[in-house]
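[Discussion] Sanity-checking designs against the backbone

I'm trying to build intuition for which residues belong where. Below is a structure token string of 366 positions. I'd appreciate it if someone posts a full sequence so I can compare it with mine line by line.
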């Protein structure tokens, strides 16, 4: 049987310091050169909570830290290019910057998916440590340089929900034939257990659920899901967090534009990305908690966890998906090897540290 979700909270924190914002170089107006104005295209509706506003925040930090030498004009999905064409637009120079999620590009760059999320992978804190302290960023840079791009982590949703379902899932059999919106490696794993997955922009989810194009959908978490009104088209809200235990939002810069920047402005962009990354993590930590309370207490949403047999099937399927991808793509092999090595390194302390504390807190506080 599907099990009601007990009250648990999963903490996320940035694994590398964000103090770099304070160390960014100050540029006096007396020394300011001609203002550099860039365009940023995004995959999010204009000013959409956390995701769209996170892109705005990144642009604002660049302008502030540069002393006004750089300005970034932000365009929501569809304003300059469609939501799922951000990668190509920045690569070609149609825009100098983008804000999106790397798993949208799996059709052209299979290894890119791993820089959003890996099923049953690392937490937000562990992932940021891999990027900032391990070799994650260097591998990401090398992968994207082939496509004339320089990538950054510019936000993270933290642990995501498994999605909205119109009917309760009590067995693996109940998953068969479902039409589910779920991108990335997790979507491929769902295909492996008999689910049909689709990739579509978030703006299309509500109507697709309402009209029967979809039987179920992931999006992000309570904060964004409440904003989209997904509780109006599905009764059951599933956790288990297997699909996106951490989900990086990527900023991309056209590599030609990046290389043309003076060194001090490169530092400005890097530090703006780091601080915007932390700011989004903090925002999601608070807003998801508030929104979950609203969904459950005011809208009567039914929280559930997948049955154990579904989780085991998803784990087995995800390992098969990863094995096939790494066999077929050398970039994927190198990146996943680094990712797994880092996860193996940090997991023992995560288990005896944060995970052990969460269990202890649950024991005494309920």
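Best answer:
Here's mine. Compare freely.
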């Amino acid at each position: 049987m599907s099990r009601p979700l007990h009250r648990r909270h999963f903490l996320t924190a940035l694994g590398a310091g964000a103090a770099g914002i304070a160390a960014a170089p100050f540029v006096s107006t007396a020394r300011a050169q001609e203002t550099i104005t860039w365009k940023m295209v995004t995959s999010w509706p204009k000013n959409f909570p956390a995701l769209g506003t996170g892109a705005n925040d990144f642009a604002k930090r660049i302008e502030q830290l540069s002393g006004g030498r750089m300005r970034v004009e932000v365009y929501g999905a569809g304003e300059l290019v469609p939501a799922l064409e951000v990668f190509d637009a920045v690569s070609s120079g149609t825009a100098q910057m983008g804000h999106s999620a790397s798993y949208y590009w799996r059709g052209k760059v299979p290894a890119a998916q791993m820089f959003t999320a890996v099923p049953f992978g690392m937490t937000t804190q562990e992932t940021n440590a891999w990027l900032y302290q391990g070799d994650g960023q260097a591998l990401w840079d090398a992968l994207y340089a082939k496509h004339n791009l320089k990538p950054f982590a510019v936000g993270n949703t933290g642990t995501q929900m498994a999605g909205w379902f119109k009917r309760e899932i009590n067995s693996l059999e109940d998953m068969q034939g479902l039409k589910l919106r779920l991108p990335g490696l997790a979507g491929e794993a769902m295909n492996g257990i008999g689910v049909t997955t689709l990739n579509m922009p978030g703006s299309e989810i509500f109507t697709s659920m309402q009209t029967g194009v979809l039987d179920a959908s992931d999006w992000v978490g309570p904060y964004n899901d409440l904003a989209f009104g997904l509780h109006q088209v599905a009764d059951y809200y599933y956790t288990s967090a297997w699909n996106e235990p951490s989900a990086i939002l990527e900023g991309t810069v056209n590599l030609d534009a990046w290389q043309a920047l003076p060194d001090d402005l490169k530092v400005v962009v890097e530090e703006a990305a780091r601080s915007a990354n932390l700011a989004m993590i903090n925002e999601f930590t608070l807003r998801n908690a508030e929104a979950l309370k609203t969904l459950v207490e005011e809208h009567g949403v039914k929280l559930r966890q997948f049955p154990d047999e579904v989780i085991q099937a998803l784990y087995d399927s995800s390992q098969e998906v990863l094995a096939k991808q790494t066999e077929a793509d050398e970039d994927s092999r190198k990146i996943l090897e680094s990712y797994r090595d880092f996860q193996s390194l940090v997991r023992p302390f995560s288990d005896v540290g944060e995970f052990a504390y969460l269990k202890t807190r649950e024991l005494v506080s309920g």
